[in-house]
Amino acid sequence: MKTGQIIKSISGVYRVDVDGEQFDAKPRGLFRKKQITPVVGDIVDIDFETHASGYIQHVHERKNELKRPPVSNIDILVVVMSAVEPDFSTQLLDRFLVIAHSYGLSPRIVITKKDLATDAQRAEIERLLAIYQHIGYDTQFIGKDDDVQAVFDAWESGIAVLSGQSGVGKSTLLNSYRPELALETNSISQSLNRGRHTTRHVELYPRANGYIADTPGFSALDFDHIEKYELDGYFIEISEASEYCKFRDCSHTNEPKCHVKALVESGEIADFRYQHYEQLLQEISNRKVRY
Ligand SMILES: Nc1nc2c(ncn2[C@@H]2O[C@H](COP(=O)(O)OP(=O)(O)O)[C@@H](O)[C@H]2O)c(=O)[nH]1
Ligand SMILES: [Mg+2]
Ligand SMILES: [Zn+2]
């Protein structure tokens, strides 16, 4: 019996990394009855039939899990956005951050295509990133020839997942981190024409102290699991300020003596962050009740 981590799956066969050695394993028949499908990122126990291949006997409890595509036990969620093509948007960034927090993941921000941005665009993005840094986020702004090695290896141990819209440069980042991967990258026109992401399966690649995966992770529209009352908890600075609101269940919209609104007025909380909070709150409130 050996214990390792699933690093990829190819049509029902799982590649398991056991202390740097790789083995192929299949799930036991029992799993299908219990409807347990092992996913990339799972810690599993395997029994061996032959030297090289075995059966997955047990899937250890997952500390977290993303559904599309499935990947578990994520430690670092990297929100990747481009400066241009497509244009950087704090609205989209905030959506990704909220979803990451809602899954209990600690997000990092990486902005790509610095080399394609004009001086004015760079200055504006740097101004905005300073706001996110002040909130407490780790941010990086990089271009084609910048060193991603140092960036990726500085993150703490565990599984890091690159997440973000198609075309922002996730595969390009991984290729510059590990040129031998030679992952497929797509031009903007191609990705728009296809309208779909080319990365369909998840694979964990070795990183200093862990792994990194190239995956869309989740869509920026995935808000179905988030309740109205918990939304403020996913905006770090709003959450901190909310402790000083008069009402414990303050929604920071119309209530008197709302500390969040006071800080928005004094400029300590960025206006655009508050607007994105309000927009999302509205969207969640308008959501139809599903059964
Ligand atoms: N100039 C420049 N182009 C980039 C950069 N990052 C990605 N690209 C280009 O953007 C396009 C989409 O990149 P890709 O890695 O496929 O994005 P993905 O869909 O997020 O994996 C490709 O044509 C890349 O060559 C960058 O930092 N600078
Ligand atoms: Mg890609
Ligand atoms: Zn309030």
UniProtKB/TrEMBL annotation:
<keyword id="KW-0378">Hydrolase</keyword>
<dbReference type="GO" id="GO:0005737">
    <property type="term" value="C:cytoplasm"/>
</dbReference>
<keyword id="KW-0342">GTP-binding</keyword>
<dbReference type="InterPro" id="IPR004881">
    <property type="entry name" value="Ribosome_biogen_GTPase_RsgA"/>
</dbReference>
<feature type="domain" description="CP-type G">
    <location>
        <begin position="63"/>
        <end position="221"/>
    </location>
</feature>
<dbReference type="Pfam" id="PF03193">
    <property type="entry name" value="RsgA_GTPase"/>
</dbReference>
<dbReference type="InterPro" id="IPR031944">
    <property type="entry name" value="RsgA_N"/>
</dbReference>
<dbReference type="GO" id="GO:0003924">
    <property type="term" value="F:GTPase activity"/>
</dbReference>
<feature type="binding site">
    <location>
        <position position="258"/>
    </location>
    <ligand>
        <name>Zn(2+)</name>
    </ligand>
</feature>
<keyword id="KW-0963">Cytoplasm</keyword>
<comment type="subunit">
    <text>Monomer. Associates with 30S ribosomal subunit, binds 16S rRNA.</text>
</comment>
<feature type="binding site">
    <location>
        <position position="250"/>
    </location>
    <ligand>
        <name>Zn(2+)</name>
    </ligand>
</feature>
<feature type="binding site">
    <location>
        <begin position="112"/>
        <end position="115"/>
    </location>
    <ligand>
        <name>GTP</name>
    </ligand>
</feature>
<feature type="binding site">
    <location>
        <position position="252"/>
    </location>
    <ligand>
        <name>Zn(2+)</name>
    </ligand>
</feature>
<keyword id="KW-0862">Zinc</keyword>
<feature type="binding site">
    <location>
        <begin position="164"/>
        <end position="172"/>
    </location>
    <ligand>
        <name>GTP</name>
    </ligand>
</feature>
<dbReference type="GO" id="GO:0019843">
    <property type="term" value="F:rRNA binding"/>
</dbReference>
<comment type="function">
    <text>One of several proteins that assist in the late maturation steps of the functional core of the 30S ribosomal subunit. Helps release RbfA from mature subunits. May play a role in the assembly of ribosomal proteins into the subunit. Circularly permuted GTPase that catalyzes slow GTP hydrolysis, GTPase activity is stimulated by the 30S ribosomal subunit.</text>
</comment>
<dbReference type="InterPro" id="IPR012340">
    <property type="entry name" value="NA-bd_OB-fold"/>
</dbReference>
<dbReference type="InterPro" id="IPR027417">
    <property type="entry name" value="P-loop_NTPase"/>
</dbReference>
<comment type="similarity">
    <text>Belongs to the TRAFAC class YlqF/YawG GTPase family. RsgA subfamily.</text>
</comment>
<dbReference type="InterPro" id="IPR030378">
    <property type="entry name" value="G_CP_dom"/>
</dbReference>
<keyword id="KW-0479">Metal-binding</keyword>
<dbReference type="InterPro" id="IPR010914">
    <property type="entry name" value="RsgA_GTPase_dom"/>
</dbReference>
<dbReference type="GO" id="GO:0042274">
    <property type="term" value="P:ribosomal small subunit biogenesis"/>
</dbReference>
<feature type="domain" description="EngC GTPase">
    <location>
        <begin position="72"/>
        <end position="219"/>
    </location>
</feature>
<protein>
    <recommendedName>
        <fullName>Small ribosomal subunit biogenesis GTPase RsgA</fullName>
        <ecNumber>3.6.1.-</ecNumber>
    </recommendedName>
</protein>
<feature type="binding site">
    <location>
        <position position="245"/>
    </location>
    <ligand>
        <name>Zn(2+)</name>
    </ligand>
</feature>
<keyword id="KW-0690">Ribosome biogenesis</keyword>
<keyword id="KW-0694">RNA-binding</keyword>
<dbReference type="GO" id="GO:0005525">
    <property type="term" value="F:GTP binding"/>
</dbReference>
<keyword id="KW-0547">Nucleotide-binding</keyword>
<dbReference type="Pfam" id="PF16745">
    <property type="entry name" value="RsgA_N"/>
</dbReference>
<keyword id="KW-0699">rRNA-binding</keyword>
<dbReference type="GO" id="GO:0046872">
    <property type="term" value="F:metal ion binding"/>
</dbReference>
